[in-house]
Every structure is written in structure tokens, then in C-alpha cells.
Specification:
805 residues, Rossmann fold, six-stranded mixed β-sheet, six-stranded parallel β-sheet, 32 helices, 44% helix, binds adenosine-5'-triphosphate, hydrolase activity, 3'-5' DNA helicase activity
């Protein structure tokens, strides 16, 4: 990089002084804008009278003032963090100087005094490199604490383009490295001040299409993806404010870890969710076995769910409904046991012939409607058949023996009336429910998994071997797992809702709403707010239409299973199964998607082995892949250890290059019987944790353990957070499994028994790679058993082992 340091102390002090003056002016302006907005908000609240139009206008204005006030108060820390100097022209006129900050500001004369980091004018601040500086002569990073400028870093691209004074005042230590050396707080911070050019490319990529960001651990994939969300919301405000942005992460702890980044960038219209939380109303609290996870994640589960739904559309059989007959292989196989439907009503045996039942079922299926919607047709037609039978019994209009060809005649209105009456009869409802029940996704999946015969039929239809469908078997009432959620979502699509009444209600509500929206549009045009794009007529109308408090886009989206988002970002995307992708893709019909992950870190047995294969069903080869190659988290000496593991477990993949090489040398500590540390794990671990915590000061530490030893190790460290709960991030030390540490980072990491992590699953090598790459400063590996060969670089500790290092 073109970082230059001048030794002219006076010139540097002068530069600092000048920048302080500019930054003070910015804060002064910020204060004035806050006061102004605050007063405007108060005025809007206190104004009274004026009828509906005035009320509406007032609400629009106060909404906008409140949003602006929130934005202005979020940006206090680090308001301005950079400056770029453009090259002057040939006539000797100086080039433009722009200051870059968290928001854009104008002075009283409307001249720009601060450029929003997402605006096109700020782009050179991130994109310029020594090789491609564009027309920049210098990029300057400003370090501020509270409102004071405490440091300046310069990168000079064209020394000749600077004035003499500027040349003398060049100062700096790389802003990036300073940022990276800060102790961890348990929460991810934004990186607006130090976005690197390869990350900038990711952040500012087009909204449309599928962007895959592939990069090793610590390459800033997550942080770049979050800045991309903020950039997209800024650049495509209209579309995305209405539809919202969804960020999918691997677990609640991770979501809490990243949760502050977007609010700190002033964005709140974003839904953060795990795959397990994407289905409203169901919480996944249990974990599948590895075998069940593989089966549930495979795309063939879509066929299984489809077959399970078809299996609930039955025809009567002698031994009860067809599906309860043992030994049957498919839902249509009824020939040997076929029977008529017979229901006793008021002492009369009403009957529908087997062939009629079958014809009606097939016709209902052929409508191509979801199960619960087609059920309405099936039930109506079956009731009519029963009503016909009942009418014949009550009032025979012809003699079937004398005139077998004479059609019966019954009055339509009378038949309707009888059908309605029959539907009130429990026996009729039960009989028809057995043939074509109203199903919720939860009921369908729960009853399927509790029924060997049903599983065998659906499994066979989906091409599953017995050993595979048997992994799904479980008692009714079992808690839901994350792997169940995409199956419920799939079932919800196939079952649909019989929403005739709800639709009629909605149609009425929509008519009223359209009236309100037309009116609101008029108000917006009248007030000029429409042209400013400050408020949509739809949102405004809704506010007056609904009785409750207005819901934000994010709140509405989160509660609605069928919500279509404007953009979706999937982080740690390598962990999503084929079924989870089906669920995510339903939420983004436009396929405007950012997929972030690292194939080399795939730990889920149902996760991805290649982006192309995993995404092929949805994007037909139209993937745009960006690679991030620099590791900002892990020092080179720790990364070298991890790279050895990667070379063993994923020989085709290469580890990213670390941007720095500082911190302590990683070490292995052998405990137990022959261990050089002369202590058992129970004695050694608390001491190692205490030593690391003392060395870290304020930082965070994680002990990463094999899954099977989590409880035992947590018991050895009573002061550490014992579980990977979101709250664990607040604790100085936490005990985690490798899976739960995914995406997180800590100043110090102690990996317990790497050999057992390696062996705990077919993806154990990837788990170990993840565990080793969580540290920003210190890595210790503690082992009772032999140190795995692939960690040979860490060597055997010397006999003079020291605890205090
Ligand atoms: N340009 C940058 N400036 C400052 N810090 C950065 C920059 N890029 C990344 N970082 C920091 O590097 C660390 C790793 O970033 P991040 O967690 O986004 O990486 P990742 O690629 O998602 O890693 P993993 O795959 O291991 O989860 C974070 O602390 C992040 O803030």
C-alpha cells in the first residue's frame, strides 16, 4: 500500500488541527440538524385540528422527522472517517476534496460537506488501490474518539499531485491494521471506515441476480454482506423499503453477534432469521441425528411430502380407508380391498359407490389445487352424492327395477339443502374427513413420522431405502428440529388453505384500502411528499385503515410465511441443505440474492459441496462468483496451523492469506498421564483459561470442544458461559461446540481434544478447521490423546512447560 509517514512533527500537528476544525464544523452542523428536526417533530405532534387531510399530512411529516432524528442520533460515533483528494487540472487548479462519513450532510447553503459512504461519490475512497488509483492523489483515514480527531492515516497514490504542505504533513499507520488489533467485544462492528476494494466490489454489486461470495475464514464475507444490505437499502430505497431485506444466518447466537451492524449503519428494515425461524409459529428446539439430517436435507424430501399429501386423499376400502391396509405400497393400490362408502344417518345407510368415490377423488386431484383447497370440491361433490342417495331413499321418484334407465329427478335447491344438513352430521364429517382430511403442515408431518406404514409408502414414492425412511420415524408429540422446518414449509405449499371466507373478507378490505390509498395519494401529491419519495401512499393508507399500531416492513414480513422479499442474503450458506434452499427461494421469487459462505467450512452433513450444484435448480448457471482472498481475522502463524488441516481434509481448497502476523505462537498442551503439563484436563483447563484471560485484558475467549464433551468441559469452567446462547456473547469466556462457534470470533481460543473433533462426524475435519480459525490473537490446543498428525506444526511442548505464557 502507498502508506507514507512524514517525520515533520509540526506539519503533522497542523494537519491534525485542520482536520479537527473540519470535523468540529460537521458536528456543529449535525447538532443544528438534530435541534431543527426535534423542533419540527414536536411541532407536528402539538398541532391540532384540520380534519382528515391535515391529520394525514401531519402524520407523514412526523413519521419522516422521527426517522431522520433516529438516523441523526445513530451517527454520533465516527461521523466522519475519511477524506479523498482528487487530482487538480492542468491549469493548476486544485482537485476536489471530499469528506466521507456515515451519512451525507449539507451546510446552510446546501453545499455538500459530508458524503454518505454509500453514495457514488464515495466510491473512490474504497475502490482506489496503488495500482488503480483513478484520479485520487490521496486517501486519508481520520480516527476520532468522541468528537476529537486523534489520528490520521494517509495513503498517497501520487506524491507529485500533493502540495508541498500536504507532502510534509503525511501521517499514518494503516487504519485497517489499527482496527483489526482492537480487542473483541462479543459483537461485530461496522467497517465503513476501512472497507477494502475487493469487499467494495461485493458491497456495490448489482441488486439483480445471484451473487455468490466465496471466501475462507475471516475474509470479511459476513461483514461485507451486511454492508451490502445497507448499500442496497440506500441505493434502491423505493423497492427494498417496501419488500424488505432478509438476512439468513446459522443460529441465534450468530444473529446476535451481527445484530448491531445494520442499526449502526442506520438500517432497520431488515429481518434477521435462522432457517429454523423462517416458518412463523413453529420453534425448532431439537437436533436431528446426522443420518436423519442427511435424509431430511435431500431434495427427494419434496417427493416424500408430496406423496404423503397424496396418501391422505383416499378411497374407501373394506378394511377401512385404503391407507390403513398393511402391506400396501402406494396410495392408489386399492383393488383388492375396494368397498363403497357407507355412512349411517338417522337410521338410514347412505352409500356412495366405490367407483364414484374414486372418480371424484381423481377429479379433485386433477384440479391442480392445493390439498385443502381441492378438499372443498371433493367434499361438496361427495355431499351431493350422499344427498342424492338420501333423496332416493326418502322419496323414490322411479322404480329402479321397472325403469332402470329412467334418471332420477330431484330439485337442485332441495339437494343443496340436504347437503348442508348432512354436513352438520358428525358421522358424515368423520367419514369424509377420513377420505380427504383438512390438514395443517404440522399435523401432516407429525402423523407421517409416527406411522411406519405411511412412511414406507411415501418413502417408496420418493425413492428412499427402508434404512433411510426409518431415520424419520419418531413418536407423536416429538419436538421439531431445524431439519423439519423446510418440510413444514413444503407441506404448507402443497396443502394451502381453504380460505374462501378469508378471501371474501380480504376482497372487501382491499376495496376499502384502495379507496383509502387513492385518497392518501392525493394528500401526498398535495403536500409534495410524494415527489420526495418520503412516504408511500400504501403505507399511509394502511396506517389509517388498520386499527392497531402500524407495523414496519420487517414486522409484517417476519409474520408472513408467503412474504416475497426484495433481496435475500444467506450467510454461512454452505450449511443449507437442498430442502432449506427450496424454502429460502420461495421467499425471493425475483432471485435477487447474495449467497455468502465457504465450501471448505461445510460442516452440515446435508450442506453444500459446490455452489453450482446446490444453486443449479434455481439460477441455471447464472451465478456471479466473487472471491475474497485476504483473511482479516486470523494472524498468519495461526492460519498456518489451520491451513495444514485444510490441506488434509479438502485438498482442492486453499486457505486465505492473512493480512497480519502478530500475536503469540499457537501452542499445543499435552495433559493427562504422560502430558508435559503434568496435570489432568480438569486441572489444566481452568489455569489455561485464566492465563489467557489475564493476557487478553478486555477481550473474549472461547473454549471449543467436541460435541460429546460439552457438558463435561463446561462443568470444569463454572465462570464461563456454558451454552451457546445469544447471551453467552456478553461473557468473557464461553464453552462452545465447533458448530456453534461458526461465524464468531474471539481474541483467544482453546481447542479441546482436536482428535475427537476430527472423528465426531464425516465432516469433523471441517469442524476442526472452523474451530482453529476463530482466534484473532491466541490459539491453544489441549489434548489428552495423541495430537493429530495434521497439527504436527504445533509440535510437542518443551518439558519446561510454562503456564504463565
Ligand atoms: N475491511 C475491514 N476492515 C476492518 N475489519 C475487517 C474488514 N474486513 C473484515 N474485517 C474484520 O475481520 C473479521 C472477520 O470478518 P467476517 O466475520 O465478516 O469474516 P467471514 O469471512 O464471514 O469469516 P468466517 O467465514 O470465518 O465466518 C471481523 O472482525 C471483521 O470485522
Amino acid at each position: 500500500m502507498g502508506i507514507r509517514q512524514s517525520d515533520d512533527a509540526d506539519a503533522q500537528a497542523g494537519a491534525l488541527h485542520d482536520e479537527q476544525a473540519y470535523v468540529s464544523r460537521l458536528y456543529h452542523r449535525l447538532d443544528a440538524l438534530r435541534r431543527h428536526t426535534h423542533n419540527a417533530l414536536r411541532a407536528a405532534h402539538t398541532q391540532g385540528g384540520g380534519g382528515y387531510a391535515a391529520l394525514t399530512e401531519r402524520e407523514v411529516r412526523s413519521d419522516e422527522h422521527a426517522r431522520r432524528l433516529r438516523e441523526l442520533s445513530e451517527v454520533e460515533e465516527g461521523l466522519c472517517f475519511g477524506r479523498i483528494d482528487h487530482r487538480g487540472d492542468r491549469d493548476g487548479d486544485p482537485g476536489d476534496t471530499l469528506y466521507i462519513g456515515r451519512i451525507g450532510l449539507r451546510d446552510e447553503e446546501h453545499a455538500t460537506i459530508l458524503v454518505d459512504w454509500r453514495a457514488p461519490a464515495a466510491r473512490p475512497f474504497y475502490a482506489a488501490t496503488p495500482a488503480t488509483p483513478g484520479d485520487l492523489v490521496r486517501r486519508r483515514h481520520l480516527h476520532t474518539r468522541d468528537r476529537r480527531v486523534v489520528g490520521i492515516d494517509d495513503e498517497v497514490f501520487d506524491l507529485d499531485g500533493l502540495s508541498d504542505g500536504d507532502r510534509r504533513s503525511l501521517v499514518g499507520e494503516a487504519a485497517l491494521l489499527a482496527g483489526l488489533r482492537r480487542g473483541r467485544t462479543g459483537r461485530m462492528n461496522d467497517i465503513v471506515a476501512t472497507i477494502q476494494s475487493e469487499q467494495d466490489r461485493v458491497i456495490r454489486s448489482d441488486l439483480q441476480g445471484v451473487l455468490v461470495v466465496q471466501g475462507g475464514p475471516g475474509t470479511g464475507k459476513t461483514v461485507a454482506a451486511l454492508h451490502r444490505a445497507a448499500y442496497l437499502l440506500y441505493t434502491h430505497r423505493e423497492t427494498l423499503r417496501r419488500r424488505g431485506v432478509l438476512v439468513v444466518g446459522p443460529n441465534p447466537t450468530f444473529l446476535r453477534y451481527i445484530g448491531r451492524v445494520l442499526p449502526s449503519l442506520g438500517e432497520s428494515d431488515v429481518v434477521l432469521s435462522t432457517v429454523g425461524d423462517l416458518y412463523p409459529g413453529v420453534r425448532a428446539g431439537a437436533v436431528d441425528t446426522a443420518a436423519a439430517a442427511v435424509v431430511k436435507g435431500a431434495a427427494s424430501m419434496a417427493d416424500l411430502v408430496r406423496a404423503a399429501v397424496a396418501d391422505r386423499q383416499r378411497v374407501p376400502s373394506a378394511a377401512g380407508p385404503a391407507a390403513s391396509v398393511p402391506g400396501r405400497t402406494g396410495p392408489d393400490d386399492v383393488a383388492e380391498h375396494e368397498s363403497d362408502l357407507e355412512i349411517e344417518v338417522d337410521g338410514m345407510a347412505l352409500r356412495v359407490g366405490h367407483a364414484d368415490c374414486r372418480a371424484l377423488r381423481d377429479r379433485a386431484r386433477s384440479l391442480g389445487l392445493p390439498h385443502n383447497v381441492a378438499r372443498k370440491y371433493f367434499v361438496t361433490q361427495m355431499l351431493r352424492q350422499l344427498a342424492l342417495d338420501q333423496a332416493d331413499l326418502l322419496d323414490p321418484k322411479w322404480d329402479p327395477v321397472e325403469d332402470p334407465d329412467e334418471p332420477a329427478y330431484h330439485d337442485e335447491a332441495e339437494l343443496d339443502h340436504m347437503s348442508t344438513g348432512l354436513w352438520q352430521q358428525d358421522a358424515v364429517r368423520r367419514g369424509l374427513d377420513e377420505l380427504w382430511p383438512l390438514l395443517t403442515p404440522q399435523r401432516l408431518v407429525e402423523e407421517l413420522f409416527a406411522d411406519d406404514a405411511a412412511l414406507a409408502r411415501a418413502g417408496a414414492a420418493a425413492g428412499l431405502a427402508e434404512a433411510e425412511w426409518r431415520t424419520l420415524r419418531r413418536p407423536p408429540g416429538s419436538p421439531w428440529t431445524v431439519g423439519d422446518i423446510p418440510l413444514l414449509d413444503e407441506a404448507a405449499e402443497l396443502l394451502g388453505e381453504d380460505d374462501t371466507e378469508a378471501r371474501a373478507r380480504r376482497r372487501r378490505a382491499e376495496r376499502d384500502r384502495a379507496d383509502a390509498e387513492r385518497y392518501a395519494q392525493g394528500v401526498l401529491e398535495f403536500t409534495g411528499l410524494f415527489e420526495d419519495g418520503m412516504m408511500e401512499a400504501g403505507k399511509l393508507a394502511e396506517r389509517h385503515h388498520d386499527s392497531g399500531p402500524p407495523l414496519s416492513t420487517a414486522e409484517r414480513a417476519r409474520a408472513d410465511r408467503s412474504w416475497a422479499y426484495g433481496h435475500v442474503i444467506v450467510d454461512e450458506a454452505q450449511e443449507l441443505s437442498a430442502m432449506a434452499w427450496r424454502m429460502v427461494m420461495r421467499r425471493i421469487p425475483t432471485r435477487s440474492l447474495t449467497v455468502v459462505g465457504d465450501i471448505a467450512q461445510t460442516g452440515d452433513p446435508a450442506g453444500a459441496r459446490s455452489w453450482e450444484t446446490m444453486l443449479a435448480p434455481y439460477v441455471h448457471g447464472r451465478l456471479h462468483v466473487e472471491h475474497l482472498l485476504v483473511n482479516y481475522r486470523t494472524p498468519a502463524r495461526i492460519m498456518a496451523v489451520a491451513a495444514d488441516v485444510l490441506a488434509e481434509v479438502a485438498p482442492g481448497q486453499s486457505a486465505p492469506e492473512s493480512v497480519r502476523d502478530d500475536g503469540d505462537m499457537p501452542r499445543a498442551v499435552h495433559v493427562g498421564g504422560t502430558g508435559a503439563a503434568g496435570a489432568t484436563l480438569a486441572e489444566a483447563l481452568p489455569r489455561l483459561v485464566a492465563t489467557d484471560l489475564a493476557a487478553m485484558g478486555d477481550g473474549r475467549l472461547a473454549v471449543i470442544v467436541p460435541d460429546a464433551r460439552h457438558t463435561e468441559v463446561a462443568a470444569l469452567l463454572p465462570d464461563a458461559a456454558a451454552d451457546a446462547t445469544p447471551e453467552a456473547l456478553e461473557s468473557p469466556a464461553a464453552v462452545l461446540t465447533a458448530t456453534r462457534s461458526k461465524g464468531l470470533e474471539f481474541d483467544a481460543v482453546i481447542v479441546v481434544e482436536p482428535g475427537a473433533i476430527l472423528e465426531q462426524s464425516p465432516k469433523g475435519g471441517q469442524d476442526l478447521y472452523v474451530a482453529l480459525t476463530r482466534a484473532t490473537r491466541r490459539l491453544t490446543v489441549v489434548h489428552e490423546g495423541p495430537l493429530p498428525e495434521m497439527l504436527g506444526r504445533m509440535g510437542t511442548p518443551s518439558p519446561t512447560f510454562s503456564w504463565d505464557r
